[in-house]
Amino acid sequence: MKDSTLTYADAPPHLSTDSVAVEATYRKITLRLMSFLFLCWVLNYLDRVNISFAQLQLKQDLGLSDAAYGLGVSLFFIGYILLEVPSTLLLRRIGARKTVTRIMLLWGSISTAMAFMNAPWQFYLARTLLGAAEAGFWPGIILYLSFWYPAQRRARITSRFLLAIAAAGIIGGPLSGLILQNFMGVWGFRNWQWLLFLEGLPAVLAGVFAWFYLVDKPEDATWLTAAQKRLVVAALEEEHRQKPDSAPSRLMVALRDPRVYVIAAGWATVPICGTILNYWTPTIIKQTGISNMLEIGLLSALPYIVGAVAMLLIARSSDMRLERRWHFFLSTTAGAAGATMLTMLTHNPAAAIACLSLVSLSYFAAAAIIWTIPPSYLKGEAAAGGIGVISSLGQVGAFFAPIVLGWVKTVTGSFSAGILLVAVLVFAGGVAVLLGVPRQQQAPKSGA
């Protein structure tokens, strides 16, 4: 078996991270691909979580309780979970260009159509269809990035991609608040209808653009020189050779690997934190005594800013030290602490924002780190299917968390019990990764 703990110093000279040619090549790739994928992910999150702002008015118009709203939020994850693996495997077969185009056109169309809901069952149906449409986007992009970037670059490049979620929160909060504040009754439509329509339409346009813009692999990139293509392919081949001979390459083998389920438990902490951050932040801020929609939107952006900055620093530290487990554990511990303190500080705006910022730190940093682990030892079909399986299993918590939080809020008038449960689960996920991922499997392999 090959040594699985190679460091940067072990890389061949032509793949050195100090090489000017190497850095220039990856800057070009990042500028070309990540700029567009970043925009796509911003639009994805806007369309997924803008319901947290729409619900401030939508619940009254559709006659939804907090429990019914929580159910609608959770229904998103049914199709999302069921179709994650098929969609990711399909991307490996037909390429990212076709897959991203299909996903964006479908989710953008459904998002804009949600503006015309007038009954609870339509809300439930739309959320279910939206989840099915978006299935495979996140794990598909993670797989797609592994076609371009070797392991030692992935925490940083994943963190840059995840900045899109922060950008969606930073942009989406004030934008949604502005629309809700100023579009009530325009042309006879409610403000939440304008919100869903105006924030859903750009995804349709981006889906059309993806068809003409994306390329599936480095060999097809006409914007790379022949030398740059050889450099990228050589780095990926070098990484592949450094994987242990026993690394799973078939899906069924990966499904029997306990590490897949440990990583899934770790990944589950991210959408669970996201349940608080993405779907209930406006409500939590409103409960502190703030009622102006625009002010709520502006304040809701602050945790995303904190989480984004923390993620960049933590991801850089993780890559520089070639260490994943402790970085992940400490990030999730911060999130669990923030959630716990939130239950005691719900009536203080500044304290609530600080607690939400700790949850945001966990949300972003844990996501950036956890996805560096599967590609480091899964190969071929196992990488595509394993990433899809991990993503799907991790979203099970995201399905139940909104239901539980909504039900607790309806029954008790408070989020406290549900948020404490979130804190326990997030901490447990961090412990699972710390103890369950072998040290030699969490270090990146060599490569430029």
Structural notes for this entry:
- Helix content is 76%, strand content 0%.
- The chain has 448 residues and is mainly α.
- It has one domain: Growth Hormone, Chain: A, CATH 1.20.1250.20.
- The chain has helices spanning 20-49, 51-62, 66-94, 96-113, 120-134, 137-146, 154-182, 191-213, 226-242, 251-255, 258-279, 281-287, 293-321, 325-342, 349-370, 380-412, 416-436.
What does the secondary structure layout of this molecule look like, with pairings?
Elements lengths: L19 H30 L1 H12 L3 H29 L1 H18 L6 H15 L2 H10 L7 H29 L8 H23 L12 H17 L8 H5 L2 H22 L1 H7 L5 H29 L3 H18 L6 H22 L9 H33 L3 H21 L12
Relevant CATH superfamily: MFS general substrate transporter like domains
CATH class wording:
Mainly Alpha
Gross CATH architecture:
Up-down Bundle
| Class from secondary-structure proportions | mainly alpha
Please give a handful of descriptors for the protein shown:
disordered C terminus; mainly alpha; Growth Hormone, Chain: A; 448 residues; globular; disordered N terminus
What is the gist of this entry?
This protein is an all-alpha fold and 448 residues long. The chain is 76% helix and 0% strand. The chain is globular.
